[in-house]
Each structure stands twice: as C-alpha cells, then as structure tokens.
From TrEMBL:
Record keyword Cell division present: no
Naturally occurring in which organism (per UniProt): Plantactinospora alkalitolerans
DNA-binding residue intervals: 36-55
Residue intervals of the HTH tetR-type domain: 15-73
Coiled-coil segments: none
Name of the protein: TetR/AcrR family transcriptional regulator
Alphabetized UniProt keyword annotations: DNA-binding, Transcription, Transcription regulation
Claim: Transcription is one of the keywords in the record: yes
Lineage summary: Bacteria, Bacillati, Actinomycetota, Actinomycetes, Micromonosporales
C-alpha cells in the first residue's frame, strides 16, 4: 500500500477509535459517574495504550464526554422557537433543558468532580447566553422583572436546573415532576412583582 494511502487509513482508524472512546465515555459515565479509564476502555473495546493515546487523562476524557452531550443538547435547544411570548419560550427552554440535563446527570456529576472549578459553567456558556438573551427581551417587553439584572436571573435559573438534578439523584425529587417544578420556579422568579399597595 502506498505510504499516503496507509497514512490515510491510520488517520481514519484513529478517528474511529476516538469516536468509539467518547461514545463509550458518555455511555459508561452516564451509568456510573465514577467509572475508571479501564471501565471506559472496556466499553469502547480498545486497549489502554489506544485510550491514553487519544485522552491522556481521565479529566480530558470526562470533558470530551460532557462537550459531546452539550453539543447534542445545543442541537435540541437551538431548534426551539423563541420569537413569541418570552414566558412561553422560557418555560420551553427550562423544560427542555431539564430533560437534557436529566439524561446527562451522571456525566455532569463526573465533570463537577473532575474538571477545574468554573470549567463546567464555562462549557455551559452558550445555552446560558440563550436564556440571558430571552430574559433581557422579556425585561424590555415588560413581562419579566427588570429590577434584577438579566445575568443574575440567568445564573439563578442555571442553579435551579442543577439543584433539581441533584435532588432527583438523591431521591428527594420525583423525576417526572421535576420539569414542571423547574418551569414554575423559573417563571415565578422572573415574573414582574406586584405593585406595592397604595396608601391614602
């Protein structure tokens, strides 16, 4: 086989192996947040040398798994029509975000335990910007409270999602009820507060 063709085959094999490893990490960490590199190599059907050749540390592999899930989630969230009433859009975003987070909860736990402080939130920046922009539009249109900065509201909603995921994982919250609770809490927090009573 000519050298160029051989290199092309090796590159294709390497890409396939990397893809298998990431998919195995998503699957294995999705069942067990503490899964080891050996566990993931076994799931992928590759040896340790191949695994470490693509991902030199568990931290690198956990991040790759989280990035893969966030990318898949972004495809779902980007398809949501947010051009109507901001309240309807926010409800849909939070319910959809919850479902995506529930599917990725174990991988997220692995990421929170493995990645440097702030890295998980950094990787969530794009979906958070979408929420922030929607809140800001709602504030401009007068349907969301404007006395609290949009950044702080968006950050609070992020914590609600992750708090609900933690409570579901701990058995304190029914997973089937979580989307409704998350959406209702979100809308309550963002709602325009009632005007203070007028005194004669």
């Amino acid at each position: 086989m000519p050298h160029a063709a051989a290199r092309s085959v090796r590159r294709a094999d390497a890409r396939q192996n990397a893809e298998k490893i990431v998919q195995a990490a998503v699957s294995r960490l999705g069942r067990d947040a503490e899964a080891s590199m050996n566990d993931i190599a076994g799931e992928a059907g590759v040896g340790r040398v191949t695994l470490y050749g693509h991902f030199p540390s568990r931290q690198a592999l956990v991040e790759a798994a989280l990035v893969r899930l966030l990318s898949q989630g972004e495809d779902v969230l980007a398809a949501i029509d947010l051009t109507g009433d901001p309240r309807d859009g926010l409800r849909t975003l939070m319910e959809s975000g919850w479902l995506l987070l529930a599917q990725a909860a174990s991988v997220l736990l692995a990421a929170q335990a493995t990645l440097p402080p702030g890295r998980v939130q950094e990787l969530h920046a794009k979906p958070e910007r979408r929420v922030h922009n929607l809140i800001r539009r709602g504030q401009t249109e007068g349907v969301f409270r404007a006395d609290i900065p949009a950044d702080l509201l968006a950050s609070t909603l992020h914590h609600i999602l992750h708090g609900a995921a933690t409570d579901v994982a701990a058995g304190r919250l029914d997973a089937t009820e979580a989307p409704r609770f998350v959406a209702e809490m979100t809308l309550a927090i963002c709602a325009v507060p009632p005007a203070p009573p007028q005194h004669d």
